[in-house]
């Protein structure tokens, strides 16, 4: 499945994320989990129907993670890098789900 992943690392990639993110966060676009475990395996927040990209970045920042991703309307994942064969999604249409 695909998720939108954002990191606190600097990048020249264009940002399509909301302006309420901390200034040092940059969007890296849409990523896919590999065939194995999640690409952000360190922390998954409990599913929350009120989850937004903004609330996910705030949660991950508060726990000192460098990367976050949202998926399936209500899921938030945190980590410090992309792991387990994660790669950018070739079809970005799967990343337009409102969080």
UniProtKB/TrEMBL annotation:
Q: Which residues form a coiled coil?
A: none
Xref: InterPro entries: WSC_carb-bd
Disordered: annotated span: 1-20
**PROSITE patterns, sorted:** WSC (PS51212)
List all membrane-crossing ranges: none
Domain annotation WSC: ranges? 24-99
Pfam families documented for this protein: WSC
Tell me the protein's name. WSC domain-containing protein
Kindly list the organism's lineage. Eukaryota, Fungi, Dikarya, Ascomycota, Pezizomycotina
